[in-house]
Amino acid sequence: MANRLGTQLFISRLSSYTTIERLETLFSPFGSVSEARLIRDPKTQRPKGFGFVTFQSPDEAKKALQAMDGRIVDGRLIFVEFAKTRGHGVDAASR
């Protein structure tokens, strides 16, 4: 596996009260946020409790991950990790 850091972070266990604006505000001190997304249920439009924040550089993303992983945000303990890219048949080859 290549030791290549991405610029997109996956944030899980978000409160249903957390907004896109709040995500941007929380993560912007660590660098230039190019995108913040919350994933919603397509039927109800309620947040599913996770989202993504994309930075301009891998260094900014790494700083944000180190600072924000395991923090309490809007009353919830959140987890932050680098977003996994979807591979083509990678898992099938390792079985």
TrEMBL record:
The keyword RNA-binding applies. SMART domains: RRM (SM00360). Residues 7-85 form the RRM domain. Keywords: RNA-binding. Transmembrane segments: none annotated. PROSITE patterns: RRM. One of its GO terms (molecular function) is RNA binding. Gene3D superfamilies: 3.30.70.330. PANTHER family: HETEROGENEOUS NUCLEAR RIBONUCLEOPROTEIN 87F-RELATED. This is Cold-inducible RNA-binding protein B-like. The lineage of its organism: Eukaryota, Viridiplantae, Streptophyta, Embryophyta, Tracheophyta.
